[in-house]
Specification:
By secondary structure, the protein is an all-beta fold. It has no helices and eleven strands.
Length: 120
């Protein structure tokens, strides 16, 4: 089983920055794509950014130019650097990971989420 532990959320003013981290642990073969979704209080879920094991990243239009996703494969960790934050970025940010394990195949795993609140 894979467990994802997020950290780095909090309260920040408009224009500020936060860095989210997500560490994968447990029993698995390799972690392929990792990324971040966000879920608003209205229960809208949006893919913010993801990154392949090889480092190829993609972003939602709302994140381009402000957020940067990166990963450390040796640490099974993905990061999301968020700059120039806006009130509309307020949401619970959930980490996910696609894992592959011999005998189990491909599986998708989710973290519990970390809250980001941007005040105006």
């Amino acid at each position: 089983q894979v467990e994802l532990a997020e950290s780095g959320g909090g309260l920040v003013q408009t224009g500020g920055s936060l860095r989210l981290s997500c560490v994968a642990s447990g029993s698995f073969g390799i972690i392929n794509t990792m990324g971040w979704y966000r879920q608003t209080p209205e229960n809208q879920r949006e893919l913010v950014a993801d990154v392949s094991r090889g480092g190829s990243a993609s972003y939602a239009d709302s994140a381009k130019g402000r957020f940067t996703i990166s990963r450390d494969n040796a640490k099974n960790t993905v990061y999301l650097q968020m700059d120039k934050l806006k009130p509309e970025d307020t949401a619970a940010y959930l980490c996910y990971a696609n894992a592959y394990t011999m005998g189990r195949g491909a599986t998708v795993h989710w973290g519990q989420g970390t809250q980001v609140t941007v005040s105006s």
